[in-house]
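A student in our group prepared the protein record below, which I am reviewing. Thanks in advance; the entry in question is below.
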Amino acid sequence: MRSLIILVTIDKALNSEFAIDHSKQLKKALESANSVLYLGENAGEIVFDKLFIQTINHPNLTYAVRGAPVINDADLIISKGQGNLEGLIPLNDDRVFFLLMVKCDVMAEFMKVKKDSFVVYNASC
């Protein structure tokens, strides 16, 4: 059953539109960034993070997981997952792009999207 859920989730991720799509701005920011901090969310998604990081192909990318909300001097910060959004959104930092699936009604209402929507979000867009 668990493997079926994983397959359904992967299929949905590959075939869904973003409810919020700031991916063009992210691509532009990646092109001009000297360094990138990529904040992963959890160990289960590291395989997908690795594939995305290979696609980004940025020469100065640091991958980290957080123990608490953190921001350093990276030019661009890719923050993966709803947990990171919840911890970092109050900073209102335009260097941060949030990549996530909205997993609860509270965040869906906050972002004005449907629950289970995929989002690439930047506060300055």
